[in-house]
Specification:
Layout: H1 2-18, H2 31-42, E1 45-46, E2 49-50, H3 61-64
Antiparallel strand pairs: 1-2
Length: 82
């Protein structure tokens, strides 16, 4: 039984790697830090339409396609179906 479960776990790990959900959760030490990031990231949005600007670009922005990201506060963990 243990071997079967380990095989199944391995299969699930491969499935997850091949089909990512396309989301990430980031935690900050303080609420004010999250507010700063959220405001900075969403500063280039104009009434729902994306502007050509990009908030604080990094060397990885293009590779990560940050211009297509949506940034928002997450639900409380107990309200997420993990």
């Amino acid at each position: 039984m243990k071997d079967r479960l380990l095989r199944r776990l391995s299969q699930e790990e491969h499935t997850v790697q091949d089909h990512p959900l396309g989301m990430a959760f980031v935690t900050f030490q303080e609420h004010s830090m999250a507010n700063f990031i959220l405001k900075d990231f969403n500063a280039c949005k104009c009434q729902g339409c994306r502007c050509k600007g990009e908030p604080q670009p990094s060397a990885y922005s293009k590779e990560l396609c940050t211009s297509s990201w949506t940034v928002a506060f997450a639900s409380y963990p107990e309200n997420i179906c993990w």
